[in-house]
Write a structure and sequence with these properties.
The complex is a heterodimer of chains A (227) and B (196). Chain A has 227 residues and is of the alpha/beta class. Chain A has 2 domains: 185 residues, Rossmann fold, CATH 3.40.50; 33 residues. Chain A has 8 helices and 8 strands, in the order βαββαβαβααββαβαα. In chain A, strands 1, 2, 3, 4, 5, 6, 7 and 8 form an 8-stranded parallel sheet that branches. In chain A, helix 1 links the parallel strand 1 and strand 2. Chain A is globular and about 50 Å long. Chain B is of the alpha/beta class and 196 residues long. Helices cover 32% and strands 24% of the residues of chain B. In chain B, strand 1, helix 1 and strand 2 form a beta-alpha-beta unit. In chain B, helix 1 packs across helix 6. Chain B is globular and about 50 Å long. The model of chain B has no long low-confidence stretch (mean pLDDT 95). Classes of the chains: A alpha/beta (227), B alpha/beta (196). Chains A and B meet through helix 3, helix 5 and helix 8 of A and helix 3, helix 4, strand 4, strand 5 and helix 5 of B.
Chain lengths: 227, 196
């Protein structure tokens, strides 16, 4: 039986878009006859060498490695980079394992992900001899409200779009074919780039941060480190 | 003028010590006051994505406690030059360097604006430091070199430095060549404001 490992790379943990994606993937892995354990939360495994080794063993035993992570500062979160560094020390173990990263960003444009993060993951994969089976970039990940614990099937049309793409990812695993590199606009850029709509959305977004900060007793544009 | 060097060498490694020393010498020679942080000697936890630095204590990280990151972040924004030193890691930053970069999120303001047709976060401060990013590798790989340059270009769009410049060095490069290349970068530093 083909074994898949799900690496959940969000430092936020359970309440994250990445975890919502992992939960759905695990469900459809099982439906499609792929063997998989619960997602491995990378943040719980980078603190000690022992826990890191546990994660490396799980990766070593898998035929398919799926990394689901957010975009942090245009690239991988530090905890994911640390895992990549640890894997690189044992690079001989990963030859021909299939690797696919699924990366989400709060920005609506998927190119924030595809411009540099995906090429870095690709370089990582090829350096270790992993088989790059493709990638999925999810622009506008915040729209699914994973940060408040929503699952994909609770996220309306946005969630449905993502679930369809994930179904195709798993189908590619089952048929032993490459998924290819795809970028998904969770929130349509056609709408976002409409001048009036975009102005309205930016206004709503900026106002919402301002209101939340005020409610918490802060001023959103404070400059605490000004000299 | 002040410069902050963030040395992202991995724990147990000292492969960036040589270039750090050269950089400190050359910056001093050019009239910069320099402060260096060898990051693996500090307790820096990675960002947890809680956004408290945006919506609860704007500008200050209070979501991660009991570590040294806030002091370093404060030093970064109060200086005119920020230098990243990193082992080239698949064309990107090392985990040590990446952890502190993530903790600089509060230097930006939440919300979005459009810059050159792209969504980006807002500036919190009027002025940001210029960025020099130096990566070191045992074996030069053109693809990684291009990735590193591109990463800095993308990262700079979200950090508003007046200028940024990248260089990739080989561990086997001799001191004189490194010194010369570092010097050329220092000559190109500009300070000031950038729109955003």
């Amino acid at each position: 039986m083909t074994k898949a490992v799900l690496l959940m790379g969000s430092p936020r943990g359970r309440k994250s878009t990445s975890n919502a994606v992992c939960i759905y993937l695990q469900e459809i892995f099982e439906k499609n006859g792929l063997e998989s354990q619960d997602p491995i939360f990378i943040r719980n495994h980078v603190a000690t060498e022992e826990k890191m080794n546990d994660m490396l063993v799980a990766i070593d035993q898998a035929d398919i490695i799926v990394l689901v992570a957010p975009l942090y500062d245009d690239t991988s979160p530090a905890i994911v980079t640390r895992t990549m560094e640890a894997m690189a020390k044992n690079s001989s173990k990963y030859a021909n394992k299939r690797f696919l990263p699924i990366i989400n960003s709060g920005f609506p444009e998927p190119f924030h992900i595809t411009e540099i993060a995906i090429p870095i993951y690709h370089k990582f994969a090829t350096s270790l001899g992993l088989h790059w089976t493709g990638s999925l970039a999810l622009g506008g990940g915040e729209a699914m409200r994973g940060s408040i614990g929503k699952l994909l099937n609770e996220s309306g049309g946005f969630g449905k779009k993502v679930m369809k793409a994930l179904d195709r990812v798993v189908e590619s695993f089952v048929t032993n074919s490459d998924f290819g590199d795809e970028a998904l606009e969770i929130f349509s850029l056609k709408i976002y780039y409409n001048r009036v709509m975009r102005k309205f959305m930016l206004w709503i977004n900026n106002r919402s941060w301002k209101k939340t900060a005020k409610k918490n007793g802060g001023q959103v544009d404070a400059r605490p480190y000004s000299t | 003028m002040g410069a902050v060097i963030l040395n992202g060498d991995l724990k147990g490694h000292t492969r960036l010590a040589g270039i750090q020393g050269i950089l400190e010498d050359e910056l001093k020679e050019a009239g910069w006051n320099t402060e260096t942080f060898v990051l693996n000697e500090y307790n820096i936890k990675s960002c947890t994505g809680c956004f408290k630095c945006w919506d609860t204590t704007p500008g200050i990280c209070t979501g991660v406690k009991n570590d040294d990151a806030n002091k370093i972040v404060e030093t970064v924004i109060q200086n005119e030059l920020l230098v990243f030193l990193t082992p080239l890691t698949f064309g990107g930053y090392s985990s040590e360097l990446k952890a502190i970069i993530e903790r600089m999120l509060g230097l930006l303001q939440p919300g979005q604006l459009i810059v050159d047709g792209e969504s980006h976060h807002l500036k919190r401060y009027e002025r940001y430091p210029s960025v020099l990013a130096f990566a070191v590798t045992d074996k030069l790989d053109k693809e990684e070199e291009v990735l590193f340059k591109k990463l800095l270009e993308r990262h700079s769009r979200n950090f508003y430095p007046p200028m940024h410049k990248t260089e990739v060095f080989q561990t086997k490069e001799n001191e004189e060549t490194i010194r010369d290349r570092v010097n050329k970068c220092i000559q190109k530093i500009k300070v000031g404001n950038r729109r955003g």
